[in-house]
Amino acid sequence: MDRDNQMNKRIVFITGGARSGKSRFVLKEASGVSGKKAFIATAQALDDEMKQRIERHKLERGDGWDEYEEPLKIVDVIRNIEGKYSVIAIDCLTLWLSNLLMNDKNVEKEIESFCRSLFTVHCSLFVVSNEVGMGIVPENEMTRKFRDMAGLLNQKIADAADEVYMVVSGIPIKIKDKGEL
Predict the structure, then answer these.
(1) I need a labelling partner for 136 at 20 to 30 A (CA). Which of 30, 142, 145, 163 fits?
(2) Catalytic residue among 10, 57, 58, 156
(3) Is residue 91 assigned to a domain?
């Protein structure tokens, strides 16, 4: 990685609703950073519909990205690749959180480990997550736990981030910029 990219290192957190344009925004923003790019995908192709979504996302990214598919151990992937890239994008934390819950992992420990890893990265990092707390209160315990953990995770990432965007109907709205505070 070159010196200019090291000096321009930033953590950018992108949140919003499902299908709001978060991934498209990340690809556009990250394309402005020179150098090699890595994409950590947390989705799992558990059914035909999800397989199609994953393939569509790969086509949208094009050839400019090295892809790492990892549903659980994203901290390990970050640790193994971070010195090789100018940009790492992670899409998406709510899928990662769901994977952790469904595999009976210690979610709090995993979140803390992930948050600590953000400060060890020496490149620009774009992190995508869904905003799930703006709807009705879920009727079952597992879904409420997911919503609450996603809210906690998003707060921690937003706090660590240099920039935070909320994407609504394809329109990114900057809600935090450490450079402007």
Answers:
(1) 163
(2) 57
(3) yes
